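This part of the workshop introduces the protein records we will be handling. Backbone structure tokens are a discrete shorthand for how the chain folds in space. Once this layout is familiar, the rest of the handout is easier to follow. The record below serves as our worked example for the rest of this section.
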Amino acid sequence: MKFKTMTTTFALALVAGLVALTFVMSTAVAPVSVSAFSERNRDLRVTKECSQYTGKAGSFCTITSSNLAAIAVGSKVSYDQAAGTPAGLLDSNVVLDAGNGDRAVGRCTLDLTTGLGLCTFSDGTGPLAGFQARVDVSPPTDGKNWHWTGTYSFSSQPDR
């Protein structure tokens, strides 16, 4: 009988411990990660004019508006690969050059038929260090200005 009482007491203590651990994990972790996500991810809206873009490697577009100060009006987006490879697409590494050595690197893929696409950025230098973004590309509605709409964040960077 003593063995059965000890086994029951141990089982109850184990269950109580698991319940307490589950409660602590669910109340302490969820709000922190949700809060961190909402504080670090912000909307990004950029307009660019592409009269200098020829479809050849090295051509560029010029930023005409941005809601992020680090991407100033006049910044350039240069495309490393030519349009049409693969057929019907622009699929290129890009450099967003905000001037003074401040740059972000990424990749853009665009359907040349619809003008719809996606650009992602993974890092940068200067004020764009740690810059990460995912933006949808949409074609001009006014005949000349392309639009990026998405989110951005800045990840913490190790000392360099």
About this structure: DSSP finds one helix and eight strands in the chain. Strands lie at 42-49, 60-66, 76-79, 89-97, 103-111, 117-124, 131-138, 145-154.
